[in-house]
Amino acid sequence: MEDHQLLGSLTADIIRERFPGRIVLTPEEVAVVMKRKPTRGTVQGIRERLKSGTLIPGLKRQGGRWEVPVAALVNAIDGMTRSDIESRPALHPRAVPRHGRPIGPRWTDIFAADAGFKH
Questions:
Q1: What's the whole-number average pLDDT of the chain?
Q2: What is d(CA 65, CA 78) in angstroms, rounded to the nearest whole number?
């Protein structure tokens, strides 16, 4: 058995064991299958990959919800490399903290100036 067939078989076995009888999974369940904690950020990343078509091309939302067919997920994971599965979305530039002095005067400068001012 080739490596990609083995991986697909293992993925299918994991899904059958964790989600018996299911034919579609939610993004939260997809995160579990992909060996990730179903945190808000991870699930949002999976939703974004579903929307952009990078996880399963051509998949559309059903009734306003993502329903990921198990067979399509197994095929998608089968075609991925380890780095694809473990890749994390990049942080948005605003999520990275700024280091340095904030714009504008400091409150201590304002209070010091007010303390010296007499009415």
A1: 76
A2: 24
Q: What is the DSSP string of 77-102?
A: HHT--HHHHH--PPPPGGGSPP-SPP
- The two tokens of residue 43 are 């699930």
Tokens of 109: 């400068």
* Identity of the residue numbered 27: P
Average pLDDT of the residues in 61-86:
81
- The candidate with the shortest Cα–Cα distance to 57, out of 43, 75, 39, 84, is 75
Report the greatest alpha carbon distance in the chain.
89
In this structure, how many other beta carbons lie within 10 angstroms of the beta carbon of residue 24? 16
Non-local (6+) Cβ contacts of 19 within 8 A are: 25, 29, 70
Phi, psi angle pair for 112, to nearest 5°: -65, -40
